[in-house]
């Protein structure tokens, strides 16, 4: 008799154990699914393309201008083999991949611009490490054929001016194309290699400036279609629209003191003066860009924080914050609805890292309580409530 009881006891214990295991697996699976997958859909689903004025007057007629949906992100800093711990790498890259893929699926942009510092160690990585980083980039930022992905170089991709070399620039441009001018739906985008705007007359810098002057000339020809100078020739004209400037370094500004918003630089850092050619372009290079290209909007990266600045005669510049959770708790990207004459920008935040961590901690606490209840170390809240009710009834 005693052996049968013991046998039933053991069976019950095994059943209880496997039931507990099932509960734990279900909770872990649900939390992982939420934190690593669903949260991106829930958060990015709330982002909408901003509305832009599409009616323009062409002489006497009213015309409807086409709208280009463009997404801008910056400073992804894919970790390299020297500074990147494998777990950090795995975590950050998974987060960025999920965020990017979800945004592509939900928002359907036509073109995506990444404003530099795609890699963290492009400035010193060996050719093998570079090839591995590039392969991971292509996997994370895969996109359908009809979506264009354009990239500008940052100081972490090719090095600051003193580290930059023709070899590094070439290997970057072999992967990402060396195009500087991109026109679509009547909108001109100029993609500047801002690291080469040191202004010291080095070979790379002189070439970069010469290229920009050429682009400036082309843009001027398209602007003055009615009174074209003979120097414009008969070549194909660009759309007659002021360009949008895309670069890694921001145009010169004293500091981030006038920046505001929840993703601006922290208050204690805002007042720190910017170093020219390090935190931002030099005054001289910034002036040149504004004179040569006469942009209607500038978008830049590098600072990892958000800011909006007005330059010269009111040309707005938007600093796009970092897209990586390694650099921010609240990464984001910019959604732009563009027409040849107008633009409207909106920011789309990604899930906050805090939310994910709190959810994991909450789930871990819940599992501990579940196990305590299961092994009778803690009275189940339901049982406790029931007993309390009974007590009151009998009183
Ligand atoms: Zn940078």
UniProtKB/TrEMBL annotation:
Residues 69-305 form the Calcineurin-like phosphoesterase domain. Keywords: ER-Golgi transport, GPI-anchor biosynthesis, Hydrolase, Manganese, Membrane, Metal-binding, Transmembrane, Transmembrane helix, Transport. One of its GO terms (molecular function) is metal ion binding. Its cofactor is Mn(2+). The chain crosses the membrane at residues 20-43, 357-386. It is a multi-pass membrane protein. One of its GO terms (biological process) is GPI anchor biosynthetic process. It is found in: Endoplasmic reticulum-Golgi intermediate compartment membrane. GO terms for cellular component: endomembrane system; endoplasmic reticulum-Golgi intermediate compartment membrane. Interacts with GPI-anchor proteins (via the GPI portion). Interacts with TMED10. Belongs to the metallophosphoesterase superfamily. MPPE1 family. Metallophosphoesterase that catalyzes the removal of a side-chain ethanolamine-phosphate (EtNP) from the second mannose of the GPI-anchor protein intermediate. Participates in the glycan remodeling steps of GPI-anchor maturation to allow an efficient transport of GPI-anchor proteins from the endoplasmic reticulum to the Golgi. This is Metallophosphoesterase 1. It comes from Pteropus vampyrus (Large flying fox). The lineage of its organism: Eukaryota, Metazoa, Chordata, Craniata, Vertebrata.
């Amino acid at each position: 008799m005693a052996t049968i009881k013991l046998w039933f006891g053991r069976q019950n214990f095994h059943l209880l154990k496997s039931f507990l295991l099932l509960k734990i697996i279900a909770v872990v699976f649900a939390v992982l699914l939420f934190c690593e997958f669903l949260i991106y859909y829930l958060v990015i689903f709330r982002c909408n393309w901003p509305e832009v004025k599409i009616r323009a007057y062409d002489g006497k007629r009213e015309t409807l201008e086409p709208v280009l949906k463009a997404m801008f992100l910056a400073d992804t800093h894919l970790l390299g083999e020297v500074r990147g711990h494998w777990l950090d790498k795995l975590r950050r890259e998974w987060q960025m991949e999920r965020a990017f893929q979800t945004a592509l699926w939900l928002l359907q942009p036509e073109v995506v611009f990444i404003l530099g510092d795609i890699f963290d160690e492009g400035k010193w990585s060996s050719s093998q490490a570079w090839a591995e980083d590039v392969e991971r980039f292509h996997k994370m930022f895969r996109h359908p054929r009809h979506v264009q992905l354009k990239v500008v170089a940052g100081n972490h991709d090719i090095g600051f001016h003193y580290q930059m070399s023709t070899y590094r620039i070439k290997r970057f441009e072999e992967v990402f194309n060396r195009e500087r001018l991109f026109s679509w739906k009547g909108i001109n985008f100029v993609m500047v290699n801002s690291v080469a705007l040191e202004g010291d007359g080095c070979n790379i810098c002189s070439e970069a400036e010469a290229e920009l002057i050429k682009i400036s000339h082309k843009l001027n020809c398209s602007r003055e279609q009615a009174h074209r100078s003979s120097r414009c020739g008969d070549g194909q004209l660009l759309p007659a629209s002021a360009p949008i400037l895309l670069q890694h370094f921001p145009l010169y500004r004293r500091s981030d003191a006038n920046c505001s918003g929840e993703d601006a630089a922290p208050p204690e850092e805002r007042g720190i003066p910017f170093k020219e050619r390090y935190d931002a372009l030099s005054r001289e290079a910034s002036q040149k860009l504004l004179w040569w290209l006469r942009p209607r909007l500038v978008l830049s990266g590098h600072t990892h924080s958000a800011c909006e600045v007005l330059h010269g005669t009111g040309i707005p510049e938007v600093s796009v914050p970092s897209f990586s959770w390694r650099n921010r708790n609240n990464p984001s990207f910019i959604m732009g609805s563009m027409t040849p004459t107008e633009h409207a920008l909106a920011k789309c935040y990604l899930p906050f890292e805090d939310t994910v961590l709190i959810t994991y901690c909450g789930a871990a606490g819940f599992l501990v309580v579940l196990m305590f209840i299961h092994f009778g170390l803690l009275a189940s809240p339901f049982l406790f409530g029931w007993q309390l009710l009974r007590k009151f009834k009998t009183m």
